[in-house]
UniProtKB/TrEMBL annotation:
Residues 3-92 form the Thiamine-binding protein domain. It holds the Pfam family Thiamine_BP. PANTHER family: UPF0045 PROTEIN ECM15 (PTHR33777:SF1). Belongs to the UPF0045 family. It comes from the Bacteria. The lineage of its organism: Bacteria, Bacillati, Actinomycetota, Actinomycetes, Kitasatosporales. SUPFAM superfamilies: MTH1187/YkoF-like (SSF89957). This is MTH1187 family thiamine-binding protein.
Amino acid sequence: MIVAFSVSPVGAGEDVGEYVADAVRVVRESGLPNRTDAMFTSIEGEWDEVMDVIKRAVAAVEARCGRVSLVLKADIRPGVTNGLTSKVETVERYLSEG
């Protein structure tokens, strides 16, 4: 499964990059395939391991700010691996064809 998620502190003002970095650090240290862009961090793995990492990422932000906003979007497709890369490669292939 792939889960794209965004975790943000609530009430911390406009500059939340330091808080978000705490969450992304948890994801990167997990060892699971992941990618971060301007809006979301995507992580790939089995249900329990992905949700555990997201829970710990939220806890990292919550430790510094009492209120946290979490947005999740999941692609649940058993048996698929390397989806973070292969899905993008498929789109790029179609774009290059015309």
